[in-house]
Design goal:
Elements (H helix, E strand, L loop, with lengths): L3 H6 L4 H53 L3 H12 L5 E3 L7 E3 L5 H13 L3 E5 L5 E8 L2 E8 L8 H41 L12 H48 L4 H24 L9 E3 L1 H14 L4 E6 L5 E3 L1 H18 L3 E7 L3 E8 L9 H5 L20 H11 L3 E6 L6 E8 L1
Parallel strand pairs: 2-3, 7-9
Antiparallel strand pairs: 1-5, 3-4, 4-5, 6-8, 9-10, 10-12, 11-12
This protein binds adenosine-5'-triphosphate and magnesium ion (MG).
Amino acid sequence: MDFDWLKRLMPRGLYGRAALILILPIVTIQLVVSVVFLQRHFEGVTRQMTGTMLREVVYLEALANAAPDLIMAKRAVAAVAEPLSLTVVLPAPQATGDARVFYDLSGRVVIATLREGLDTITAIRLATLSDVELTLTTRHGPMQISFDRRRVSASNPHQLIVLMLGTSLLMTLIAFIFLRNQLRPIRRMALAAEEFGKGRVVPYKPSGALEVRSAGAAFLDMRGRIDRQIEQRTMMLSGISHDLRTPLTRLRLGLSMLPEDEDVAALERDVAEMSKLVDAFLEFARDDAADGEPESLAPCAFVAQIVEDSQRGGLPVTLGVCQDEGTATFRPDALRRALENLIGNAVRYGNRAVVSVGLGPRALKITVEDDGPGIPPGQREEALRPFSRLDPARNQNKGQGVGLGLSIAADIARSHGGTIRLGESEALGGLKVELVVAR
Ligand SMILES: Nc1ncnc2c1ncn2[C@@H]1O[C@H](COP(=O)(O)OP(=O)(O)OP(=O)(O)O)[C@@H](O)[C@H]1O
Ligand SMILES: [Mg+2]
């Protein structure tokens, strides 16, 4: 059996599902009780009461038939009618046929029971709901007997329904309130986890039911451990790089004291290379948190500013499509660093770069394209790794990098709950880098 359609109909949220689990049994019980109890039970009671009434009617009929003439019959019947609370008319006008109001369900049972028990009955009128009026044939002509309707059917079954509906509505309401209170801690935890995934730390304290609380505590532990790990890595990397700077400076100083010759020049180049590496290292190790708090900004204006700054720095960069509706939340300094690295790559390996901005419902996408050689699909993963420089033949005369630019950008994207995708630019033919971050 395929239950996909059922799954599609089910509410998706925990709240909706729990409410369904709660309401479904209540509605089912209501239906079962109404159908079985109300119909069966009230029908049975009505039949019983009508049966009792029927015996009195039969008794009256027998009295009337036993009398020798109409006068005697009238007298005999009147003598019992009073204590039995019946109204008797003898002789009565001839009447045939039954009548009841269409929604009078128990009336149907009353008529059926009376007709079954006594076949001299010619008419049963339940038209007024408060009286039963039946006509039967005796030896002395038609006799009409009327009595209170309450004597044949249990009164007010709808009171029970109203009570039942009212109670279950009240209980559902109470259950909803309880449920909401139980679900709130789960929702708060989901929110904290979601935000942490986007690199934002929101205050969160475990609360609610035992299981939710322990999941919340586990989440907090995890968050703390991840934060500590990042901090440790940063401290280690920046510590090493920083401590390397002093001996490097000393080396450079020492070299500059030596008389100029080829060997010394080579050594100086090496030292310069090492300094560059150390600088790049420090840049890489920079703590993300030091980039400040996330801000809600208009992404297009933000990117346009970076492009403009690069242009002033003499780089051949232009701004492409820039979707400028709505805002996104990110750490501007970090994103600027990532973008500058991507632009730097594009103009180093290509001759010009185009930056464009797209804003989706959940994500912000910044695309940097160039007209360089691009990166073949098989090498894209490697290019994103720290310290990986691809095939130096492709980078001729472009100056050697350290191999950290792309991994810095990827790191920043990840810390914003996003990622970096490498592809081929359709417009320019070179590399296309998509920097995607959660809004
Ligand atoms: N726009 C691009 N076009 C072609 N190849 C690229 C492009 N961007 C990066 N690459 C390749 O990916 C490699 C890794 O790039 P990455 O930015 O990480 O390091 P890098 O540019 O060599 O050094 P750094 O950015 O640290 O100065 C580069 O060495 C280059 O071969
Ligand atoms: Mg680079």
